[in-house]
Amino acid sequence: MSRLVYVLNGPNLNLLGQREPQIYGAETLFDIERACMALAAELKLELRFHQSNREYELIDWIHEARGIAGGLAINPAAFTHTSVALLDALNAFEPPVIEIHISNVHKREEFRRHSFVSQRADGVIVGCGAQGYELALRRLAKLIDAKG
Ligand code: CA2
Fold this sequence. Notes:
Number of domains: 1
Strand content: 15-25%
Shape: globular
Structural class: alpha/beta
Largest sheet: 5 strands, parallel
Number of helices: 5
Helix content: 25-40%
CATH architecture: 3-Layer(aba) Sandwich
Radius of gyration: 14 Å
Bound molecules: ligand CA2
Strand order of the largest sheet: 2-1-3-4-5
CATH class: Alpha Beta
């Protein structure tokens, strides 16, 4: 089982730490990437960490991960609630998928409660702040270890 893991981030997450810290915290996406890289080294995972504001780029990275990655963590941001295309791409990706949301989407507007991606995700981490990324990596490492 490949120990390569993709961590994908959707639209506007490049603004983390710059606005709305009461919802998304003070950490930047680069802080999160650094923390993920440090944890990945501990867990003996190899990471590819990406962010895009474009749906097709996220889809292309999911396609790229097919056949080479052992797992994928994704914060699809607003595409969570809108994108059948992302769901279709994830359905064509076999290894474990963990969906992450920094905020507790269930405590917010009604439209954030529905996720297309959750129909495919093997696990969903919601409302744990930036730590959600680390929890996702720990879960993926455990699932990869279990598959041997
Ligand atoms: O809680 C999450 O992680 C979300 O995926 C974040 C998305 C939102 O649309 C989802 O419902 C929940 C929004 C990301 C936008 O991030 C910003 C960060 C700072 C300033 C403005 C936007």
